[in-house]
């Protein structure tokens, strides 16, 4: 990969090489670190920070409960290292909305600042942060720390949260919050005998009732359910999706229509977009996404995460395609007994029907410019974060861990109402991430503009919108050297 010449040797690995070579005694922890809490040594272990006070700062996503969970649990880490290693640590938390967080992180890291020692990054930012030499390449730290050598639940976890460049062995992130799209359902409406009878009379079919029923459900079949529960006269609609131009909202909810029906967005090896994204089949998928607006509340073209939470909590929608990570907000005391969370439907018909939805979630990344003490604390924290006791506690507080040991516990599926659907969608082939390219933010901005221009009626044709996006992205990637070919001549005459 390309290295930042200002970052020095080791792709921005500012921590001294001699420290890395000390292995578990320096960057890592002793083999006893992974032992259960009950087996802790009574006396503090020898540690280079013993007797010191360290202040750490985490940058995370404003209003995003999984991010705040990591900081709310930090006092447990402080108690742990005080007892075991004899040093004091405190954590501050800075935040910004999804749409602003990358810029806030980049502005600070570009100055080689230690303002944020650990960052909760969106997965797609790995390329931009790593290529610039701003975040720590973690391979040596993982090799030196057995507690970081986890068996992850699926390859999807590694591909989404850890590796850059795609397909390489270079690791720059560790999963903080796993996330997949799930379908939140009002089970009180679904299980109402009167509703079941009315649905059967109208469609000569049964309303799906169980997790397994929704596992088998296609979008065509679910469309009847959404239509059935769309009752504008009663201010109730069948479903809600994210269609907003803000950040990646429309993108993440269009991709399932595209991927599940055999489409793709680019060739990651060559950087080719034109001719791959803007196909007739993908245009039809975008048309399908727009057609679902008739089952959604007025103003749905502006819906993002928060808007979906609002209409679901207010009882204005029967269902929501929503992130599993938002379960803590979607399900509250008022509706807890009325909600079930299931897999989102497959696309297509019969044996050919598939479900491939967009991955969400965020990795931890470590500031490459941390001094030696803060770097040590950051690695200590990661070792603690992936202890079995910590990951289970995180799940009990509403977080979504990604390691196979925690997700395979018999009780995991019932800890939270969304856990089973989250784990189901984390299985290989059911969810995928998109670009980790350093030009992610530029490509996303163009794409959000194009997709939502069609969804809101500003651009009449789905194909025109995709042509525009493909041409613009091809130029971005060609200019950056990722794409081997420049946009074709037709691109000069395409606009929204």
TrEMBL record:
Main location: periplasm
Gene3D superfamilies: Periplasmic binding protein-like II (3.40.190.10)
Keyword vocabulary terms for this entry: Periplasm, Sugar transport, Transport
One Pfam assignment: SBP_bac_1
Matching SUPFAM superfamilies: Periplasmic binding protein-like II (SSF53850)
InterPro entries on file: Bact_solute-bd_prot1, SBP, TAT_signal
Subcellular location: Periplasm
Family: Belongs to the bacterial solute-binding protein 1 family.
PANTHER family in the record: ARABINOSE-BINDING PROTEIN-RELATED, DIACETYLCHITOBIOSE BINDING PROTEIN DASA
Protein name: Multiple sugar transport system substrate-binding protein
Organism expressing this protein natively: Labrys wisconsinensis
């Amino acid at each position: 990969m390309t290295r930042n010449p200002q970052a020095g040797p080791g792709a921005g690995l500012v921590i001294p090489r001699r420290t890395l070579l000390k292995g578990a005694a320096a960057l890592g922890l002793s083999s006893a670190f992974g032992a259960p809490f009950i087996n802790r040594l009574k006396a503090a272990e020898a540690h280079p920070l013993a007797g010191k006070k360290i202040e750490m700062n985490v940058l995370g996503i404003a209003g995003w409960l999984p991010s705040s969970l990591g900081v709310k649990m930090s006092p447990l880490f402080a108690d742990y290292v005080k007892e075991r290693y004899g040093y004091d640590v405190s954590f501050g938390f800075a935040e910004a909305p999804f749409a602003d967080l990358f810029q806030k992180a980049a502005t600070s890291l570009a100055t080689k600042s230690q303002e944020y020692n650990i960052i909760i990054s969106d997965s797609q930012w790995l390329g931009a942060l790593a290529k610039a030499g701003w975040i720590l390449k973690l391979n040596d730290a993982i090799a030196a720390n057995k507690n970081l050598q986890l068996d992850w639940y699926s390859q999807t976890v590694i591909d989404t949260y850890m590796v850059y460049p795609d397909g390489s062995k270079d690791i720059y992130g560790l999963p903080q919050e796993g996330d997949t799209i799930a379908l939140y359902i009002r089970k009180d409406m679904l299980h109402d005998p009167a509703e079941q009878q009315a649905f059967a009379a109208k469609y000569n079919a049964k309303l799906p009732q169980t997790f397994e029923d929704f596992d088998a459900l296609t979008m065509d079949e679910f469309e009847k359910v959404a239509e059935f529960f769309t009752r504008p006269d009663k201010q109730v609609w069948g479903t809600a999706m994210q269609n907003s131009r803000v950040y990646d909202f429309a993108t993440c909810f269009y991709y399932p229509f595209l991927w599940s029906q055999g489409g793709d967005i680019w060739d990651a090896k060559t950087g080719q977009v034109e001719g791959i994204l803007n196909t007739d089949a993908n245009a039809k998928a975008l048309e399908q996404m727009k057609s679902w607006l008739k089952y959604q509340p007025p103003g749905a073209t502006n819906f993002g995460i928060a808007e979906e939470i609002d209409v679901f909590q207010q009882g204005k929608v029967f269902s929501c395609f929503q992130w599993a990570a938002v379960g803590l907000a979607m399900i509250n005391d008022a509706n807890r007994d009325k909600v079930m969370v299931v897999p989102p439907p497959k696309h297509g018909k019969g044996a050919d029907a598939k479900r491939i939805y967009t991955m969400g979630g965020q990795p931890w990344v470590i500031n490459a410019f941390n001094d030696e003490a803060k770097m040590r604390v950051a690695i200590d924290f990661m070792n603690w974060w992936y202890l079995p006791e910590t990951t289970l506690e995180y799940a009990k507080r509403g977080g979504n861990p990604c390691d196979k040991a925690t997700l395979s516990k018999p009780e995991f599926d019932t800890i939270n109402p969304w856990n089973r659907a989250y784990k189901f969608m984390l299985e290989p082939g059911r969810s995928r991430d998109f670009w980790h390219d350093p030009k992610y933010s530029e490509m996303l901005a163009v794409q959000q503009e194009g997709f939502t221009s069609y969804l809101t009626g500003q651009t009449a044709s789905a194909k025109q919108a995709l042509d525009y996006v493909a041409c613009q992205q091809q130029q971005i990637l060609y200019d950056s050297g990722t794409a081997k070919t420049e946009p074709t001549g037709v691109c000069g005459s395409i606009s929204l």
